[in-house]
Fold this protein.
Amino acid sequence: MTAEAVTASPPKKAKRPKSGDMQTRRDRWLSINLAVPTILLLGFAQVYPLIQGILYSFQKGKTTKPSQGWVGLQNYSRVLHDAEFWEAVKFTAIFSVGGVALSYLIGLGLALLLSRDIPMRGLLRVGFIIPWVLPSIVAMTAWRWMLQDERGAVNLVLGWFNIDPIGFFNNGKWAAVAAIMVKAWRSFPFMLVSLMATLQSLDDVLDEAAVIDGANKWQRFWHVTFPQILPMSAILWVLMMIWCVNDYETPFLLTLGSKYTRNLMIYTFNESIYHNLGTGSASAVLTLIVLGVLAYFMLKLQKKASDQ
């Protein structure tokens, strides 16, 4: 026998997997098998229309006959040279920025108020959520009644102060103001709930230290509270911006499709149904790109906030 044979170590026995590891692997595969049908169904219901819409944007057609021949980038060229498209882009930007800013300010103010120990705080919290859960058609009908030219509740109140009635639906600027106001009314409960949860998770040590240093309420909010809620606020801004860009029902139901409040969603719908499905699909793809960019920034902000 050689020295190598004498000194060779005996073969190692294969390790048997522990029963706990086998159970974990079995549970993991069971979870995957249970989730696959749902993933396939949702994927088909979401991915297929997305791909089909992108294909339609390169074709000429109508809803009755979608595919009437490939036209390449002609649909995108027509959309980008359409004055109504840029009017819709302009209103969408104003509507989104105004709705986000106003809903955030209202939600933040109420969140700071309801974070204190005030009477009927629980009842107020429930009451302020009503605009969020109220059906859209009911809310928009009520707002249309209140914003009527002469007999609306808003103009009746303005009449008490000798202010002339405002034609909210007959003037482009006032129609935009009405849409932003109603959007903020519908959206501030989400801001309120999110900001209240953020404020309640903050550490009071920094605020108490600021009080000891002689800081007033505004200084404590601006230099102590706001920097701590800024990461969550940024996420809420981007998320609400996505919802505003993607909002069809608020401007349409409020003004019944008025030309003054025609955003990208209404323009895309009208173009697809009443004119050319190809140009409508091109508008939808362009809007999707904008939403994708906003979603990317939201994910980046969310990751940054979670790392802090």
